[in-house]
Structures are given as structure tokens and as C-alpha cells.
Amino acid sequence: MFYDLHMHSCLSPCAEDEMTPNNICNMAMLKELDLIAVTDHNSCRQLPAVDKVASALGLRLLYGAELESSEEVHVLGLFPKLEQTYPLQEWIDAHMPGIPNDESYFGKQEIMNEMDEIIGTEKNLLIVSLSATLEECVDAIHRFGGRAVLAHVLDRANSVTQQLGFIPMDLPYDGLEIKSADQKQRVLDTHPWIHEEDTHWFIDSDAHHLIDISEAVNEMSEAVFEELWGKSL
To answer: How many Å apart are CA 112 and CA 5, to the nearest integer?
Structure first.
């Protein structure tokens, strides 16, 4: 199946206003994707609307968030069921620093319903570090039934390699997000404890604009999906 498991809605202040639940799902359909995940920064609150829209379109959905650890490392939490994100949201709220969002500087943080109507805004800034280490973020994702994918592991300010200098050998992540086969080889060349055949690799868009959502080029087999998330979708 063709997938894109990393994109941001208009709830993320760094995403464009056009990234509404309907626009995201319909663009994914136009691009002939089979499976997507919306992964807003430190929030799952847009997911109920995305779930309704995706269900109506027959688009498969994983439920996600992009957590930022206390080391400023980004990690995707991806869940097979919407209700699994409710305790994650409570955990996120308990670890947020409570910094008010300055909309004029950072951008709007809008929560929408399935009609793309604004039903609320997030008052606290979402693009912040949680008071939880990377290990604690991965543990929370696992505890609530999700899978942890280290986001954009190379060449980004909030990647694990930029913040820590390397991918920890004993960190129990479930996958690594890269941008190309070249990046995969760079990871393997610099991390001899990582083996290509034992690792789940993901190429996602990290879309903040509709046009950036992936085309139907990156594939995942049903076997890999079931290995990670079971047969619930």
C-alpha cells in the first residue's frame, strides 16, 4: 500500500491554514495514497475530525502525534485506534511546559470538526519540548499501544542525530524515518549496530502544505503493517 505517515494539520502552528482535515484527506485520495497519518506537534486533538473524514472517504488511517522530547528530538507515535490516543493526550498535557502561544509570531493552532469548521484553538504553544526524555516518550507510546518512529533522523535540527549525535543502540524504537535510499545508507554506515533487514524504514513527507503530501511512491506491505499494528485496519 502507498503511504505517508507524517504530516501536519492546521493545529500545528508551523503548518498552513489550508491543512484542514478535509483538504488533507482529499489530497491524499487525489495522490492515490492508501494509508496516512496526521501527526501534529505534541497534540492528538485534530484526530477525531480526521478520523471521520477518512472513514467517509474509505482512506486508511493511523492515529499519530509528533512528540518533542526534553532533548528536542522528534519522535512519531503511531496508533491503530483513535481511542489509544486519548491517554497519550493526557500524558502529553501532563508534560507540557504551558507556554502560551503567540499567534502573531508562531502561527494559529486551530482545532476543526469534520466539516472543517473551527471548534477551538490550542492556547499553549505546541512546538516545545516536553518534560520527558526520548526514552520516556518512546515508553509512553508503547505503553498506550503505539509504535515509535524516530522522525527525520538525518539533516534536521530536531533529528536524533543532530541532537544526540547518534541513534542510541538500546533505544527500543520501532522504525526510522529517512528521506531517501542514500540516507538509509548513511545511517547504516555511521551506526554499525543498525542492520538494514532488521529495521523498519519509512519515507514520509512531513508535509506542512497540501502540495507536499507524498505522491503514491512509497510502499508498505500488508505483512509489515500487520507486524507493526496488527489487523485492526
So the answer is: 20
- Split into its structural domains, the chain has a count of 1
The CATH number of the domain holding residue 128 is 3.20.20.140
Measured distance CA(18)–CA(216) in Å, rounded: 21
Neighbours of 206 (CB within 10 A): 20
Alpha-carbon gap, residue 206 to 76, rounded angstroms: 11
pLDDT in tens, 57-116: 999 999 999 999 999 999 999 999 999 999 999 999 999 999 999 999 999 999 999 999
Instruction: Domain of residue 88: give its range.
Output: 3-229
Are the beta carbons of 84 and 144 closer than 8 angstroms? yes
Q: Give the number of residues written for the chain.
A: 233
Residue 7 contacts by C-beta under 8 Å, 6 or more apart in sequence?
Answer: 19, 24, 36, 37, 38, 39, 204, 205, 206, 207, 208, 212, 213
Query: For 175-213, what is each residue's pLDDT tens digit?
Result: 999 999 999 999 999 999 999 999 999 999 999 999 999
Say if CB 53 and CB 25 are below 8 A apart: yes
H/E segment holding residue 67: strand 60-68
